[in-house]
Amino acid sequence: MNSEALWLFKQLNLHLEQEGRFQPREKGLSLIECAAENENTLCPRLRNVKVEDLWSLTNFFGFATETFVLAVNILDRFLALMKVKPKHLSCIGVCCFQLAARVVEEECIIPSAHEIIRISQCKCTVSDLKRMEKIISEKLHFEFKATTALTFLHLYHAIVLCHTSDRKEVLNLDKLEAQLKACNCRLVFSKAKPSVLALCLLTLEVQTLKSVEMFEILLRVQKHSKISDSDLLYWRELVSKCLADYSSPECCKPDHKKLVWIVSRRTAQNLQNSYYSVPELPTIPEGGCFNESESEDSCEDMSSGEESLSSSPPSDLEGAFFFDLKPKAKWQTLNSES
Questions:
Q1: With 60 as the cut, is the pLDDT of residue 149 above it?
Q2: Where is the composition biased (Low complexity) (predicted)?
Q3: Are 46 and 189 in a shared domain?
């Protein structure tokens, strides 16, 4: 085993020890699962819708997958501790998104609280966000940087590449991340161990690739991580069904949601009046050079009024990661497949 592999397994051991510490309380998640939908009770559907909103915000601001996964982890850990009314969920979700962005993203690209409220259309004030941040921080003991399924997905992916002759072009990490985000939109997967959920996604992908070499590596990883066949099969079947459902055209995905700008009546009238006006274009000099900076600065981007929150390129790529997945009627253990 080379030095890179030793370091990866050392990191894996570290995160295996920590994963239970950052998992939402199963009892709290079960209470949400059993809750009826009404104005005083948080039900699974409302939680899932809020997570889809976080996915849309992540794509809109061009943030990393880690920001989204961490925001969901913070959200679920808090919801599993506190009895939350649906009317407060919007403020809580935006606050969790902001906390995750501070952990993952560069400070210079994180938008202001006012900007996040405006884009998310959260019906709260900056003061509300600050108060909510204080509550969440105290309940979670200011522990925001967590071990998540994405942590294990990256580690397992790196371990497989370190031991196989097949290169990374075959085992697509972007595809695996997109599938993980789809699972995060279902409350049930917050009850799974992050290490198990990550291994489920990898084994399903390796099964699609029909790589015996990768299967043997994942068998060693499964044994090292002390994941039983029964746990792996149980969660893998749920993951497979989730991805199959998500690939169906009937499924409403986050990037189908429209961003609607709310304007005053006066502004709307001005927009209507200017709709038919044709601006006078400047003459293009024949011998001059095209100045890209001037062109970009003088042209206002109005596409956000019609496009979705997640209209950035990553969401387009993610959409293609679910359509070639065919659910199986029965899953076998890794031992029998390899």
A1: yes
A2: 305-318
A3: no
